[in-house]
Amino acid sequence: MEGRCLSQVSVTVQPHGFRVRGKKGNSFRRLCHDARLELNSPCGGLGRCGKCRVIITEGHANIGEPTKTEQKHLTRKELSAGFRLACQVIVLGEIEVIVPKETMPAQLRLQTEGIYAKTEILPLVKKTCLEMPQPTLRSLKPDLERLLSALCRGNARQVAVPMQVLSRLPDVLRKSKWKVTATIWSDREILDVEEGDTSKSVYGFAVDIGTTKVACYLVSLLTGETVAVSSMINPQVQHGEDIMERLTYAMKGESERAELTRSIRKGINRLVAECCSKSEVNPDHIYEATVVGNTVMHHMFLGIAPNYLAVSPYVPAVKQPLNVQANELGIEINPHAKIHFLPLIAGFVGSDAVADILATGMYNKKELCLLLDIGTNTEIVIGNQQRIVACSCASGPAFEGAHIKDGMKASIGAIESCRIDPATRKISFRTVDGVAPRGLCGSGIVDAVAQMLGAGLIDENGTLLEDAPYVRSGESGQREFLIVRTSEGYPRDIGVTQKDIREVQLAKGAVQTGISVLMKTVRIEPRQLRHVYLAGAFGTCISPASAKKIGMIPEVPLGIIRKVGNAAGTGARMALISSKARQLCASISSKAQYVELAAHIDFRSTFMRSLSFPSQSTQKRSSEKRTESKQTAGKIRPQRLMHTQNY
Amino acid sequence: MEGRCLSQVSVTVQPHGFRVRGKKGNSFRRLCHDARLELNSPCGGLGRCGKCRVIITEGHANIGEPTKTEQKHLTRKELSAGFRLACQVIVLGEIEVIVPKETMPAQLRLQTEGIYAKTEILPLVKKTCLEMPQPTLRSLKPDLERLLSALCRGNARQVAVPMQVLSRLPDVLRKSKWKVTATIWSDREILDVEEGDTSKSVYGFAVDIGTTKVACYLVSLLTGETVAVSSMINPQVQHGEDIMERLTYAMKGESERAELTRSIRKGINRLVAECCSKSEVNPDHIYEATVVGNTVMHHMFLGIAPNYLAVSPYVPAVKQPLNVQANELGIEINPHAKIHFLPLIAGFVGSDAVADILATGMYNKKELCLLLDIGTNTEIVIGNQQRIVACSCASGPAFEGAHIKDGMKASIGAIESCRIDPATRKISFRTVDGVAPRGLCGSGIVDAVAQMLGAGLIDENGTLLEDAPYVRSGESGQREFLIVRTSEGYPRDIGVTQKDIREVQLAKGAVQTGISVLMKTVRIEPRQLRHVYLAGAFGTCISPASAKKIGMIPEVPLGIIRKVGNAAGTGARMALISSKARQLCASISSKAQYVELAAHIDFRSTFMRSLSFPSQSTQKRSSEKRTESKQTAGKIRPQRLMHTQNY
Structural domain boundaries of chain A? Predict the structure, then answer.
């Protein structure tokens, strides 16, 4: 259409599936930069270093021919394979680009490591190399029976065999001269029969699907070792940043629903391929996968209508653990591999929370524990071996750096921590990779607000004091406190606005309300808590002291707060290598009691109270005076609240 | 292509899938007639009666426009629906035609009825209508758990649910206002969940796949009643008439193998559709199917390489019963329906024999029984509740009227029985439907040879006496005895040639050898037999006296011979409606001992001896003198022969 003239262009950045939009006619590097995705380009986009290599996969018509600079830095072979330099490619229309690992900002911090508790290796999948005598006119045992009797050594058992395996069996047995490797699941189902001895190659795949991030682990089922890790932005983000946006998209119709399912499955296939290529593992040798995620991700991956999760009473279609064959879901590992979906707790507390509980071991502790998995949605769990209660709260995207004026993801140049001297009000800060500051990531904004609070720049209601130094009226007419000042030689001003503070208040208020309602449910006080676990990427970055200062974490000694990283991913790996861990998950899921915050009688008033910041003097005093009553610690008095749901 | 000029045309005749070839320019009726498929056309193809209505489905360009005659007999609506008169349609190229039941020769005798032993109705499939309370904020049980607790009424059980059912569940429950019908298989797998109460509509489908014929039965799983029956020529016949031809075709390559699988599955889908339309049953309400057939048909239907069934030691890929999901095989009943393949006995004794044994009840009899399922391959079983031995022999196509000069299928005009007065040598005969004779079907040829033997026209070696009346030198220079003579006013001569007699000798010799080897294996004499069952279409048509006279059936009193019709189909239905019957089949399969005839030490000599006809005087004497020793009757002395294989 010649008449069409749009000044905006859109680029899909693979392998993460980002969608970058910007002004037509800009270079790809510039578009990324404007979207705060800093590609590796040491020369700053001048075309000197030739390092910002990318591969154009779609939309070649929407970019010009290679420039002389590109011809200098790239071989003819590379050019014909689609390689270009990000700083040279002028984008005139929609394109798709693969950014290779060396060009990708390494600092795109996807939390993939965490505690990895000692777990006994008891996988459900076993591979056995079998040799058997060939049939003769005097030994006419059919192929399958011959295989099974070699496998079960006389212990006749009912073993299921998929049709595809059975139909190939006669050929496989004869081509291999009657020496094959059989893979059996849970002692009752043959997953594959291969020629020769492949018994040493047996893998599992653990998947942690977050609303924003997907992390995958390729694990040897012989040693329990993680042999490859890959992660990506959840490709569903193009249909909505948070869960509610995605639910809204899903509810538009069948095809939108199917698109979300297809998109996450495709993304996971990309991670499978990536992990397999890193570790040189044959994808057909992945015989099991475990999946954790919130309930919406769980339903969407499975292809279950998530619509009813968006409306009261928010019940999931299924809560119990599920085993689904890989080829039914289109996951490109062994077609008969089992994909195990860990059980859920409720509509808004998914299997990621179950995996968190498993990984931290809190289900087995005598002492009372609090677990926070902080993100756009924050899951809160309180409990011990006696009882577990859980809730979820919509903490919003502030903790991910979104909806904050100078907010950004925790990538290069993000201020990740800062300190304001209460006396001099002098500011010091640390950025990701120590480069010049570009903005504030989640932990930076929490730190900033906490420090401003400590320095008396904000009052308990969150009002930014007008007359303080470095408080100015920003462009939008809003008051703003400058953390980074051009006047001090920095390339740009970075500040915290009154609105930013309100966003933090809403976010922390939601978490605080959740904790408070759960504590009421089990009738305990903060001082009875013995362990506080901070899970998830944000939980790992955040300063516990700052989180406590703004009231997000209750009044507990800093020493009991532990960052557990991606505990959900760890739990998924534990369930992958151990059938015992799976049983534990099932019991955690059925034992855990879900508390629907919105239905709680105290919700409204508690939330209103939680918006304020704690009085800084009180806080200091109470943490100094802190005495612990050993008698009451760790005991939950059983109680049945009006608005607490039991199954 | 204008230059193309072939004088031959080819027509596919549905629903049976016949392929009729003939001269281009002939009417469709004439092509059928030449192929010995007599359509219902009382006026003899003159266009007067308008009865030979057919439907043209493919190749309209290869026939002319409707003639005036057709316009007279058919309404405009019928013409536009593709109806034509077979006698008026001039075939100029390839077409496909559906011949409606009323036009089809009713005499195309596909044996679909048989004994139907009283079987307790114990189907594995159960449908239950369930009503459940809807979820509220105080009752957050997930959809599946809600359904299962209504289904199991508190008895927690592990019940599997297919993903497709689970993904629709939230919608189904809400649209039906929480009143649904669940279908459960074997108390452990949900097959479907439907809105409202459909619990009265629950059906099964029994399939008997013969090399030549396929018979299907639609059965109510509530009452055990057969509500529709359909049958067809096995559509694989286009790739070979007998098993060896089809195996040869399958061994050509992957695509040929796949073609045979596709062809039988497609054929069965046609029968499903036919049965459902006859009885107005929703195909989604067919939740189980049972399948019986010889081992090659079994493997081909399942998509298992049958190649190794063609080479020594002829072992099947699998022998045990199998349950396969309908959608895995592409069978168009409920996608999660279970297709149960009855167990086999060996490479050449299939599940049809197991079903025969089940239906006759011989597995449970104290007395010794002999079962013959006669066809191109004949299965022979001897046994009782103590022991069962079985073998298979290649009896060739003579019994189906093939390879016989004037042989034909048992359709209209076929001589199905005949008698020659030994004194006057006057011949009387009966034809199918009593019309003028057109040829000899299997039972006719056996009768003719037996009568010729009795009348002294053939000696014990099978030589046709030269000097007898009505023996002439036929066109091919062969001696031939005329059964039907133009000299007596019949439209054509029909005779039995010396070569025809040799074909019968080979066929009966094979059967006789099989019986003889089995009797040696269990060390019994014919006089110890108490029941002889003749199964299959041919077994139903044949005259037991004639079969005995030519030596195919051993020396037993005629009174103990019983025709059991399509016992395999009956067994398939019994297994369909009763889980107990299935258990019996499994035990029959593992108990039955297969004897490989070709490997038997006495095979060659026995076969050579069996080619001769019994001495007619001896036979008469022995059947007159017959004394039975009650002591030895029914006892099989256990014995292990060199060439008898045990599993």
Answer: 8-98, 125-195, 205-351, 360-397+505-612, 398-495
